[in-house]
Design a protein that fits this description.
The chain is mainly alpha-helical. The chain is built from three helices and no strands. 70% of the residues lie in helices and 0% in strands. The relative contact order is 0.14.
Length: 79
């Protein structure tokens, strides 16, 4: 495995964790969890973070959730 492949897999895992953290925070705040609220939460999380690399991951996560309808992942109800 090349270093680049490792970085890609690692970044993908981090993006998934970031999305999960956003879902948890929304739930803790008794907010609905949908693409719109997730996107706004990720934006707020990025605004709080001072690590440029993590901020980029928040933006990647926002892009990923905005494109969920294009994925054929077998999960119903994400719209």
């Amino acid at each position: 495995m090349t270093d680049r492949a490792y970085e890609s897999a690692s970044s993908e895992d981090e993006v998934c964790c970031i999305i999960g953290q956003a879902v948890i925070e929304l739930s803790d705040e008794h907010q609905p969890v949908n693409k719109s609220t997730l996107s706004l939460k990720l934006l707020a999380m990025a605004d709080r973070d001072r690590d440029d690399e993590r901020v980029l991951l928040y933006w990647i996560a926002r892009k990923a959730i905005s494109k969920l309808h294009q994925l054929n992942i077998g999960v119903q109800g994400w719209r």
